Structure of TetR family transcriptional regulator:
Amino acid sequence: MSPNRPGRPRDERVDAAILQATRVLLAEAGYAGLTVAAVAARAGIGKAAIYRRYATKQEMVFAATMHGAQVPQPPDTGSLRADLRWLAATITGMIGAPGVGGVLGGLLADMEDEAVATAMRGFAALERATIALILDRATARGELPAAPDPAFVHAVMMGAIFARLHVFGEGDREGFADDLASTVAGGLIHPAGGLPRQGDGTATPG
Amino acid sequence: MSPNRPGRPRDERVDAAILQATRVLLAEAGYAGLTVAAVAARAGIGKAAIYRRYATKQEMVFAATMHGAQVPQPPDTGSLRADLRWLAATITGMIGAPGVGGVLGGLLADMEDEAVATAMRGFAALERATIALILDRATARGELPAAPDPAFVHAVMMGAIFARLHVFGEGDREGFADDLASTVAGGLIHPAGGLPRQGDGTATPG
């Protein structure tokens, strides 16, 4: 209910009804069985009200299960490791619910559709802007010589947590998030091996 | 055609025919449209010959697109970074073909089926054994104070490469593999932040 959010209060109630109906039907019927028509019927609105907000079923599902146009903004914890630990916890909270693996699998299987892929890239850009903020702060603090590519850190953090939770079995979520934050922060600060780094064109010692 | 492989040569031709028919039909019809019956018909064999080898359609698809019971064994390159760079290239080769994202998405959407999840865990265990070898070598070399959990490194390497190639857009594969190997090796050698590490129970300085 942010005052900066576009749309009148009446529209916000429709927004919420669509997202809620989508979640209920995903739990009942799964991703493959979900249709825009069924969501509209369950929410008590017309399909056109959904298509004014989401170009595709997949975009609606992503917004209902992961996030919409607002993503959480990182607090400045004072260190890259603690900022990445916050990020790991936030991603785990976002994708960690039971059933989200199947939903993301369904979305992925539909990514060959260009409209779906474009929408997913839009959501990814929002996530990446959050990561860019974390990396820029670490550079300003002097922890990093230059900000690494946010797309690189995005793929590592999202991919690792997704694989752990939904592909290989979740195990100890807190311990995994701790290890991931320590390893990625440590590796960005002290990359092994003398390879050129993105962003500064120089080689870094291992 | 390893002499250690169980089965007579006649059986190996059937093995190969099943895998080839699966790949052809995946390219033609996609994962969702694939059936064991269609693969049997295309390979010119009975369905029973398939079910003697694979408990489910999903297991057959995984073997045809990713790997079967044999996975590539890592050469000892002399450093953790270079061993992980080999691993990144091997994973990229394994999952990087066009269409594999959709296949893996379909498999993931089917993971709520316990038989499918069990088979996927079996394939994951093979991959993890390869990673354990790399980590044990790095420990023997003195690069690491104790071998980290192979399951942790597995989720990070597989997840990051999968996310980059099939979710967020592939970009520069070689550069990504370089950065991933440097960051993960660097972070295992110099984890940030003084958290306890798995395997030795002590804290490491950042």
About this structure: Chain A touches chain B through 62 residues (CB under 8 Å). Chain A has nine helices and no strands. Residues 114-141 of chain A form the longest helix (28 residues).
